[in-house]
Recover the amino acids of this structure.
């Protein structure tokens, strides 16, 4: 009811303004010399144009006010009601989720480069009569070696045929001081020694060092070792 009254009041005011401007138009034309009928006709036209235009522009189509401020207020009220009621607004966007930071120690799923090689180089150690005997880790097949002769006394490796004073020094530098060390060489270890005798490669297999060393380590003798004991081979 209130809205209808407002619409009617707005329309009446607009057309009243139109009548006023139409009357002024007619009076002005008659003052300048137009006849009464001519002035009244033009005033009516002015009234229709001005009243109709104001009614449409100010009060809206059909005589209803546009009410822009009221419409804006209504939209704001509707938005406020949606927020208070828990309904998401059209512009609302879901808050980004932040993944929880993983805790604990990170372990590699695959072995690190060089890890296996490093582990193979650790080696192992045993002790015998104060001399450290080490299992080789430098290369596959290397025999066990000693850091020094047991009890500080090395066997006379020159009793093995093919081992002269120079080669005995080479063997000692490699960690071989006793007959039982040579006697214990496997085929793979013998091949390693053959390969690593600088300047004498292949001598250990060719002169059958292992077989000779087994006899000498057990307290036996060979024809060559007898000649060495008699001083017939090397100058003493």
């Amino acid at each position: 009811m209130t809205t209808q009254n407002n619409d009617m009041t707005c329309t009446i005011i607009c057309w009243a303004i139109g009548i006023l401007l139409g009357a002024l138009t007619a009076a002005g034309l008659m003052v300048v010399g137009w006849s009464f009928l001519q002035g009244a006709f033009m005033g009516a036209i002015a009234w229709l144009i001005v009243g109709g235009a104001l009614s449409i522009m100010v009060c809206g189509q059909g005589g209803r006010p546009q009410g822009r401020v009221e419409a804006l207020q209504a939209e704001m009220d509707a938005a406020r009601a949606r927020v208070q009621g828990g309904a998401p607004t059209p512009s609302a966007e879901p808050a980004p989720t932040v993944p929880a930071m993983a805790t604990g120690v990170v372990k590699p799923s695959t072995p690190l480069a060089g890890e296996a090689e490093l582990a193979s180089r650790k080696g192992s150690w045993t002790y015998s009569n104060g001399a450290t005997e080490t299992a080789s880790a430098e290369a596959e097949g290397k025999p066990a070696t000693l850091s020094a002769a047991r009890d500080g006394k090395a066997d006379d490796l020159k009793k093995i045929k093919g081992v002269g004073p120079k080669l005995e020094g080479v063997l000692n530098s490699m960690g071989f001081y006793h007959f039982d060390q040579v006697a214990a060489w496997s085929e793979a270890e013998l091949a390693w020694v053959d390969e690593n005798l600088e300047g004498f490669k292949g001598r250990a297999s060719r002169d059958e060092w292992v077989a000779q060393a087994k006899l000498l380590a057990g307290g036996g003798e060979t024809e060559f070792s007898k000649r060495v004991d008699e001083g017939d081979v090397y100058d003493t």
About this structure: Residues 1 and 7 are 10 Å apart (CA to CA). The radius of gyration is 60 Å. The mean pLDDT is 75.
